[in-house]
Design brief:
By secondary structure, the protein is mostly loops. The chain is built from 1 helix and no strands.
Length: about 300
């Protein structure tokens, strides 16, 4: 379909353009709110600054689409193929991206995906640096090797998400639900995880240096060989967690709950554990040099 025909018929009140071929179409700045393009082919199309608010693009093919600063609030992108797309600065608030393939997409320049439903979506190697994902549902998403430095994921849900080797440096995950997610080999240096829910979450060999985990609930979490150097774990619940061979040098564990926690082979050099509860914990081969114990006494 030619762009001119689409725009003419839309202006006349028509909204249903399902399964049309608009590959490589130039729709920059187009006003197509509430249009239906379900199953359409928009591969390589130019949609920068377009208005597709409330539109239905379910199962559309959108590989390589350029959509910088697009206005797509409430859009239905369920199960779309959107690999290698550019959505820098786009407004996707409350969009439906369930099951979508967004691998290698560029959501830079503060793209706003707040309130998005992205369950089971593929976000492999995506650029989400400083993206806004407040209260978004990222359950079961694949974020392998994604870049989320400085991203705002406040109160987002990442239940069962795969975030292996992803970069969350300085990301805001305050009160986020990370239950049973996999952050193996991920980078979370300086990340904010204040009051996060991380029960049974895997942080195997992850770098959480200088992260803020105050009052987080990480019962049964796996921090094996993780770096938590200078981490703030004040009042964090780590009961039944595994911290085997983890590096907690200079960490703040004031009033932390470590009941039945496996600390074997971990490094607590210079850590502060005043009033921490280590009852029934495994402290075999722990390096305590310079640590302040639960009783306030320095360990040698």
């Amino acid at each position: 379909m030619e762009v001119s025909e689409l725009l003419e018929r839309y202006a006349a009140g028509e909204r249903d353009f399902d399964r049309v071929d608009l590959s490589a179409a130039d729709l920059r700045g187009a006003e197509l709110a509430d249009v239906s393009l379900q199953g359409a082919d928009l591969s390589g199309a130019k949609l920068s600054e377009s208005n597709l608010q409330g539109a239905n693009l379910r199962e559309a093919r959108m590989v390589g689409v350029l959509a910088e600063r697009a206005r797509w609030r409430g859009i239905n992108l369920r199960e779309v193929k959107f690999r290698d797309g550019v959505l820098r600065g786009a407004d996707l608030i409350n969009a439906n991206c369930i099951g979508a393939d967004l691998s290698s997409c560029d959501f830079g320049d503060h793209a706003n995906l707040s309130g998005c439903s992205m369950r089971a979506a593929k976000l492999v190697a995506c650029n989400l640096v400083e993206a806004i994902l407040v209260e978004s549902n990222l359950s079961e998403v694949d974020l392998h090797e994604a870049k989320l430095e400085g991203a705002n994921l406040r109160e987002a849900t990442l239940h069962h998400a795969k975030a292996t080797e992803a970069n969350f440096t300085r990301a805001n995950l305050t009160r986020a639900n990370l239950t049973k997610a996999n952050f193996s080999d991920a980078v979370l240096t300086g990340a904010m995880l204040l009051e996060a829910y991380a029960s049974s979450t895997v942080f195997l060999a992850a770098d959480l240096s200088s992260c803020d985990l105050r009052r987080a609930k990480a019962m049964g979490a796996d921090f094996t060989a993780a770096k938590l150097i200078k981490g703030n774990l004040r009042e964090t619940n780590l009961s039944w967690a595994t911290l085997r061979q983890a590096d907690l040098s200079d960490a703040n564990l004031f009033q932390a709950r470590l009941q039945w926690t496996n600390l074997s082979g971990s490094v607590l050099r210079g850590a502060v554990l005043i009033d921490a509860d280590l009852s029934q914990s495994n402290t075999r081969a722990v390096v305590w040099t310079g640590a302040i114990g639960p009783d306030g006494q320095a360990r040698q």
